[in-house]
Amino acid sequence: MYQQVSGQPKQEPENQSAATGFSTSYSSSAPYSADNYSYQQPPLSLPKPPVEWSTGLCGCFSDFKNCCITCWCPCITFGQVAEIVDKGSTSCGASGALYTLICCVNCCGCFYSCFYRSKMRQQHNLMGNNCLDCLTHCFCEICALCQEYRELENRGFDMVIGWHGNVEQRSRGVAMSVTAPTVEEGMSR
């Protein structure tokens, strides 16, 4: 690099980078020249800022049915949330049973469920952090499970039909109805 001389701007040799001083040009006699191959760097994408939860922690009473189910049998709500968060790799029944077993053995199902809150928060870019997730589940387990259930419902998941039902529903583009199959009455010959 050259020093500034008598008020003239600083000049750089044409084959050196200003930041590193290394050569940036290629020889035209090389079999592979920079003109033959162009590489464009993908534009830098900044991470999206986290979004608020769609409902508050104490918004349990907006969905009274879910609030009652979660209050009396939190394993059902947890199982439904875990199946959606795990994208169908574990079933609602298996997750709910494991949650119940942990609660019966050491009364600390909240530590298990807080991991799912963190996983869900990361999947959907929701505000919060791991410490807050743990504290929320330790002190407000029922409200936390209800909030997660409502969040997934507000994001378009039908919690009753589970992950595979939601995938099938979205792939067909048809709303599925949750009804029992019809049964013929009486015998016929």
Write up this protein:
With 189 residues, this protein is mainly alpha-helical. The chain has a domain at 65-170. The chain is built from seven helices and no strands. Helix 1 crosses helix 6. The chain starts with 63 loop residues before the first helix and ends in a 17-residue tail after the last helix. The mean pLDDT is 80. InterPro entries: PLAC_motif_containing. Residues 1-28 are annotated as: Disordered. Pfam families: PLAC8. Residues 17-28 have a biased composition (Low complexity).
Summarize the topology:
Elements: H1 64-72, H2 74-85, H3 92-106, H4 109-123, H5 130-139, H6 141-154, H7 162-172
Would you summarize the structure shown here?
It is built from seven helices and no strands.
Overall body shape: globular
Oligomer: single chain
Order of helices and strands: HHHHHHH
Task: Count every beta strand, where a strand is a DSSP E run of 2 or more residues.
Answer: 0
Report the helical percentage: 40-55%
Question: What profile does the largest beta sheet have?
Answer: none
Radius of gyration, rounded? Answer: 29 Å
Outline the low-pLDDT stretches: none
Q: Strand share of the residues?
A: under 5%
Q: What would you call the structural class? A: mainly alpha
Mean pLDDT: 80
How many DSSP H or I helices?
7
State the end-to-end CA separation: 100 Å
Region (Disordered): 1-28
Pfam family, one: PLAC8
Transmembrane segments: 96-115
Biased composition (Low complexity): 17-28
